[in-house]
Amino acid sequence: MDRYKKIIIITGIIGAVLICWGFLYSQADRYGLDVPGTRQIFPEKVWRGENRTITYEFGFDFSRDAGRCLHFVSDRQTVKVYQNGGLIHSLDNGTTAVGRVPGKFFHFVKLSQAESQVLVEIQYHYYHDENVSPVFWLGDRQQMFKERLIHALPAAVIYFLTFVIGVMVLLFWGIVRRELKNSRESFYFSALLIVVGLWFIRGSELVNLLASNHIALSYAGYLLFLQIPILCFCFSIYYWDMKIKLWWENLYFFLCLLNMAVSVGLHVNGIREFKETVFTTHLLLLAAFGTMFAGMFFYFRKHGADYKVKATFFPTMIILVSTAWDFWGFYHNTLDTYRAGGLASLLFVGCVSWSVIYDLSIQLKEGQENAIYKRLAVTDLLTGLYNRNAYERWEQSCQGMLGEIGLAVCDLNNLKYYNDTFGHEVGDRYIVDAAGLIQEACGREGTCYRIGGDEFLVVWERKPDSFPYAMEQCLKKLDLMQQDYNRNSEYICMQIACGYAAAEPGDTRVGDMIKRADGMMYCHKKQLKGFAENSQRN
Description:
This protein is an alpha+beta fold. The protein has helices at about 5-25, 140-175, 185-205, 205-210, 215-240, 245-270, 275-305, 305-330, 335-380, 390-395, 415-420, 425-440, 465-490, 510-535, and strands at about 40, 45-50, 55-60, 70-75, 75-85, 85-90, 105-110, 115-125, 135-140, 405-410, 445-450, 455-460, 495-500. The chain has 14 helices and 13 strands.
């Protein structure tokens, strides 16, 4: 079993454990409190007023009741609480462009220790909200708040995991994107996970318990939700490698951008709240799901039921059902559907993450193999320098742009002698060691090529200032390195003949410079042979 399959299996086990954990927690009464001394209370009277206002009346006698805090939850409603006719708590509309209707709010209202009448006046801003009455609790504020945090933590962990997976995939994409054939798939998947994760985190009970500005928090959720359809659409296209018509893709992008602009504009100008315009976003999201299923269908027809289809089909069906359930809960103000949507999203994220990571591993492996083949195509296997193929590519790319180029040609003396006398193994050692000296002496700013059996070329695309002087210094350094090498070599007496040239006004191709450099190199070769003959005579 390779390491990629191990990663997928481990990720699946962790995801399954977390999903089961979150599911078990979701079975309990979401707004129930199991705290000693805390009890659910029911209003003695309920009556409806003007402007969708409902008032709940309670009577308390704290001489017989130790509870001193009234607790309930509101969502997109303004609230006023009166005790014995005096206002003791309120949650009002906002007055800025960020928002006016309050978001979700956990109320903990401290009550006086006295016999009293308490009125809770709730103004509902949307029609469907009136059909859902809040649940009221009476008890110790600290204990109830602590219990809320404990109940909220598991779901928050699940939502945060979605965000973390998105960040990890994005980091992975940033590292390996150049080696991927389809890098957009992982980019849009990571962006989708990050946005969806933030959306769920924003709506979690934990964040709502701890946040101070619930109006801004509520509308941050709407702004995040506006991004989800277009990210889901883009991910579906690249995940299933769909070849859709450009006009359909552009039309969907235009509708999403238009929806964002219109929704924000209407909200900021106080014409329509986000909830009143979110219906179009829901339609766009359903269109994105339709694209997902269409892509899956055509992919299945082409490739059969491979790992992508198997990992995605059932989670996509579940996320579609949970999304429809969440839509129903949204329009009927049934907040319990939010957690079901979060669990379904985590299941979808887990399964599709396995598929995406496995797909990325395959692409990465193919990309690495292709990179190796590309390197082999331009690399001399014996010396590790660039080969003649790489030189010819460079030569073609710089025709007509020779102004800043300088080059040096190098040739090894007596290579045939070492091959014939000591064998090709010693001859190869001569070539490899000479290549190392040439690269060390000249190749820090230049690029070294082996263009023949014993022929090397060093190119400076931007030649150094005072090029002749710089080249003489390189040749002196190379000569000293050869002398040091020859003192320690048992068989090989290294002789590297060199010549150099820079671009001149009349040059039209690189060959013109090489011809002048070859002339200088052959003169140097004769000199080296003359030195060798004199040393043998002496």
